[in-house]
């Protein structure tokens, strides 16, 4: 088997795995197919996801369904105002053996898992939110001077409710920037709502079981990294990111409403997730349509509006679309 045939086999394997995961999740999470696709793109790109939606839309169900379909450990952390950093990363506890000798041992926190659901992350204090920062960025945790690596793959999905803001602590820009995607869950369509009502008020659906192994998932993540992106595609991403900044060559609404544009991480997120999408669609290179599909979830949370933009309730998606259209014309 030559290299090209091996690559074709790997791509077919990735597409098969993607379809199996999507089918498994769809049995429990109904009516939001786009959200499922973007969550899987982020997983294949080895990034993290901020999931935002009103209560009752199934954010927790979505993440739990993904974890159940994978041969990975899963922990859910319910963020509350009294949650402490040690409740996330771990602490030292005093143990006593049979000979009544005492010593400290390290008790690892729930962050030591492959899939971590940070539920309602904006309800915890900034100090506790930042406990996830090192883990998300460096994939390691420092406890009492000891650096402990997190076993790959490490995938964080944080949820937040955009409606009920009283008693919450908005995520700082530095932490929001760590998320590869921000996925917005809107209200389901009529057909989607009917599917949800029918599927959740009858007999409990049977568990589909694991459909993917940890080793194969890591192999697929490496395959995504190996997908080439031409200099033209890299140039397009760079120009889109720069077009989100109010200084220089930017569309009118960006200059009027944006205080700070996307960081370079936004461009990295676009390219990595576009590579995953290209493979899922059977292409061995990044195409313009891949970049167009992932631009909004990759950039929408990285734009910081000025006072006028906040007052006018301008949505990040509108500004990202303006930047894309401005560069693509």
Summary tags:
single chain, 329 residues, alpha/beta, 5-stranded parallel β-sheet, two-stranded antiparallel ribbon, 15 helices, 11 strands, globular
Could you describe the 3D structure shown?
There is one protein chain. With 329 residues, the chain is α/β, with parallel strands linked by helices. It contains 15 helices and 11 strands. It has helices spanning 3-26, 33-44, 59-69, 86-89, 126-129, 131-138, 173-176, 190-200, 214-225, 231-242, 252-257, 264-280, 288-299, 307-311, 316-328, and strands spanning 49-53, 74-78, 90-96, 102-108, 115-119, 140-143, 146-149, 155-160, 181-185, 258-260, 304-305. A 5-stranded parallel beta sheet has the order 2-5-8-1-9. The chain has a two-stranded antiparallel ribbon with strand order 3-4. Helix 10 packs across helix 15. The longest helix is centred in the N-terminal third of the chain and has 24 residues, at 3-26. The radius of gyration is 21 Å and the shape is globular.
| Class based on secondary structure composition and strand pairing | alpha/beta
Give me the count of strands.
11
Outline: globular
Q: What spatial order of strands do you see in the largest sheet? A: 2-5-8-1-9
Task: State the distance separating the first and last CA atoms.
Answer: 44 Å
Main beta sheet strand tally, sense and closure: 5 strands, parallel
- Low-confidence residue ranges: none
Helix and strand element order: HHEHEHEEEHHEEEHEHHHHEHHEHH
Measured by DSSP, the beta-strand proportion falls in: 15-25%
What's the rounded overall pLDDT mean? 86
Helix segment tally: 15
Report the helical percentage: 40-55%
Radius of gyration: 21 Å
């Amino acid at each position: 088997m030559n290299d090209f045939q091996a690559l074709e086999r790997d791509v077919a394997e990735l597409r098969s795995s993607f379809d199996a995961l999507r089918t498994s999740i769809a049995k429990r999470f109904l009516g939001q197919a786009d959200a499922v696709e973007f969550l899987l793109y982020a997983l294949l790109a080895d990034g993290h996801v901020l999931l935002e939606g009103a209560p009752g839309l199934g954010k927790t169900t979505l993440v739990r369904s993904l974890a159940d379909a994978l041969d990975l450990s899963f922990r859910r952390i319910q963020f509350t105002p009294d949650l402490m950093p040690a409740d996330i990363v771990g602490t030292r506890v005093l143990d006593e053996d049979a000979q009544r000798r005492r010593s400290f041992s390290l008790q690892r926190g729930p962050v030591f898992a492959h899939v971590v659901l940070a539920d309602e992350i904006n309800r915890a204090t900034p100090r506790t939110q930042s406990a996830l920062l090192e883990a998300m960025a460096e994939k390691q945790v420092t406890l009492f001077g000891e650096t402990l690596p997190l076993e790959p793959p490490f995938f964080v999905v944080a949820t937040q409710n955009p409606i009920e803001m009283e008693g919450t602590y908005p995520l700082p820009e530095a932490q929001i920037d760590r998320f590869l995607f921000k996925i917005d869950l809107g209200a389901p369509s009529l057909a989607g709502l009917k599917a949800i009502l029918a599927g959740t008020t009858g007999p409990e659906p049977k568990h589909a079981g694991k459909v993917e192994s940890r080793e194969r998932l890591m192999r697929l993540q490496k395959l995504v990294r190996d997908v080439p992106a031409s200099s033209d595609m890299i140039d397009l991403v760079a120009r889109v990111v720069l077009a989100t900044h109010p200084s220089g060559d930017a569309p009118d609404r960006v200059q009027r409403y944006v205080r700070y544009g996307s960081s370079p991480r936004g461009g990295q997120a676009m390219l990595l997730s576009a590579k995953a999408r290209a493979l899922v669609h059977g292409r061995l290179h990044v195409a313009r349509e891949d970049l167009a599909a992932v631009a909004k979830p990759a950039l929408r949370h990285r734009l910081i509006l000025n006072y006028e933009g906040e007052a006018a309730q301008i949505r990040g998606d509108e500004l990202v679309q303006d930047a894309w259209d401005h560069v693509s014309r």
